[in-house]
Prior knowledge:
Helix content is about 45%, strand content about 15%. Strand 2 (about 30-35), helix 2 (about 40-55) and strand 3 form a beta-alpha-beta unit.
Amino acid sequence: MDSLQGQAFLVTGASKGLGKSLSVKLAQKGARVLLLARSSTDLEETTSIVQQFSPSSFSVVCDLADSVSITSAAQRILAEVTQVDGLVHNAGDIAPIKPMFAADLDEWTRSMMVNLIGVQALTSALGSVLLGGHRVRVTTISSGAALRPLPSWSAYCTAKAGLDMWTRCLAAEGAEHNLSAVSVAPGIVDTAMQATIRGASTEDFPLRENFVGYHEDGQLVHPDEVAQQLMPLVTEHTMNESGQRFDVRDL
């Protein structure tokens, strides 16, 4: 797809990392980008960059752990656009990095909200601009943690596994509405989440040194590079591919 002129894409977690890179690349292709993230100078700066390529793009402040914030964000979007052509559920939260019996329940619950429940809440609230019969592509950012348990990542692993199944359910139900959904594992991306993981104590996270090693050995991939690999999937995946899980290393 050479141009996304006339299309609107919503990206969550858009203020930095992979969400920022995807937002900029979508704007460079001509899309109107709706950047959703918590309030921060990062969100303001990323929005300014995106608007250089797509002046009609705008940011929406939203905390996916807060149902009131999700409702407010959805109302803002519905007031601005009549249809959304693409939705990238990129926002994620690795906390709590704690053994299951030591994890704070409020933090565990927040992880479920950000990584899974908030995805459903936001998507459902935007139903009127997603289910108009026009072609819609939904992409969820998965993780290797969706497929295997990692010590002290119980909330993240559980939520990402649930997100993969949520994507498959959306694909099944969306087919009659010309809506497709795919999930993709982006690999080890050099983001703030990786810094958080490296900042955990070895006592809390026995595999910490592995992630320190990934960083020191230069195994982390820049978000711009990953976004470039993901763009064809985000903007061009077919109805036949709907419901599938991809790995960026196979694209």
